[in-house]
Amino acid sequence: MIIGKSKREIEKMRASGQLVGRVLQTLREMVEPGITTMELDREAEKMIRDAGALPTFKGYNGFPYSICASVNEQIVHGFPSDYKLKEGDIFSIDCGATLEGFVGDSATTVPVGKVDDEWLKLIQVTEECLERAIRQCHPGNHLGDIGWAVQEHAEANGYSVVRDYVGHGIGRRMHEDPQIPNYGRPGLGPKIKAGYVFAIEPMVNLGSHYTKLLNDGWTVVTLDGLPSAHAEHTIAITEDGPEVLTLAASTVSV
Ligand code: MG
Ligand code: MG
Prior knowledge:
By secondary structure, the chain is of the alpha+beta class. Helices cover about 30% and strands about 25% of the residues.
């Protein structure tokens, strides 16, 4: 069942979303060759707790950290570690925070130092996939429109979309109905209604879409070892269209 949110609830989700946005902005600025992914995890947890919120990921189904730290061929759910980011890596950070009972969830992929043009383009196209998906978030559209927007743009650029992991509804719990795949057919699937809140998260692979789970039980990598990029926002659907909740600051429209 898809749980619609009231305006008041969306206001709370804007607060948790903006916190996550600020955390990701800060971590993006900290990324440089030599920093460990564990240092970034500690900063995220500190910022979240200092804001009176909880790091949603920590303890979620036993996940041990506040961020997912996925480097290069790691798609999602990587563990922060003493690995030092190095020039040429692409690094995806996924973060969630629970504030006053509501969850915000967002992810971004950051180039470390100077990165190969082909890999930079993968990040750029992944962000464009997210933007195109967000533009589909109008009442009356269908879930399939979102998936299609991602898939069509990724595949037009010669990439593939991950099928084994998907976006999701979000609210008091991080993962609510519906599942939001990064593939689909236009006009199919449940109708999008005002009050729905979705975490839309394209995972785009340079090579094939096949994935493999590492022995730690969490880290998902590409089967072919080629890089993958990830971008995610929490989006509220309003009568007027999409509102991105996980920006670092509120955007006031005039
Ligand atoms: Mg996420
Ligand atoms: Mg998510």
